[in-house]
Amino acid sequence: MHRLHFILGLWLLLCCSDTSRAEDTGLEKADHENASQWVQTTVNGYLIKAHYLPAKQPDLPSPAVLLVAGSGATDHNGNNLAMGLHNNSYQMLAAALQQAGYAVLRPDKRGVGQSRATDHDPAAVRFDHHVKDVVAWIQFLRQHHTDITVIGHSLGGLMAMQAMRQEPVNRLVALASVADSAHATVKRQMQNQPEFVRQAALPLLDRLAQGETIPGSEVPVFLHPLLGPDTQGYLQSFMQLEPRSALQDLYIPTLVLVGDHDIQIAVPETQQMAAGLPHVRLQVIAGMNHVLKAAPAERMANMATYAEPERPLHADLMPALLAFLPTVHDNHAPSPPSP
User: Is residue 194 in some structural domain?
Assistant: First the structure.
């Protein structure tokens, strides 16, 4: 049963709402030497906070990178400690980007970590709240930087795409991003679950896709984190959004990165999302998994890396990003392709 709960927990990473509190890992002690700080802004009265890591040479113009976290209670370090997921991927990525000369902003999403209000109601959160928060962070960075790249990871990729329709930036990186609608993605992911889980979940998922509100008494207890009353509204608020439709409307330079050992995001779906879009460059990294680490293809060994905080980022990730990001201190971004 423990193994089943762990598998379900990983499945829920993509689609559950932020119903638990993430914790600080204490791994940012060295950041104080780099003048890092927590910054804040408000969106319709809700206070949200982010960890800001300045460029190594703060006196010179520097491009900025906004990291948008994936779903669930994933914090600014890429961890969800309440579910035993401790990989430090975002913390490592931010440190590598800063070392390369970029300023980096890593928000805690609304309801998570430093952005969790005392009166936070998880059942009231909708996908558009997170999109508006991303818009607010882009506007925050624009006060200090003329060149901004948004890196959206997992469901954060779709959040970034939606936000940039309202607040365009210089470029986008869709990193292990959801590439199909949540409805289709969860149904695909369900194929890796035990038969009794599929039989219980799929009819409920289809009912939610039709806009139905399902009483908690009709949802098995083991499915409450995904399909229970507290999460139905959040899931319904984005489950029909199509990432390709959002991506093809952006017309800004975009890098789509995915690993071929990602057990949450399928490479064929990602290829289909990016196909034929002139402003999109697709790169598949051999051996990289969903938490951006080198990992075996075998499912259980792959999942074990989600709880290995010392495992480094995949060796090919930063070279792929640096080949796409602007040269440091060169803030003349290329013009977006014409529609």
Answer: yes
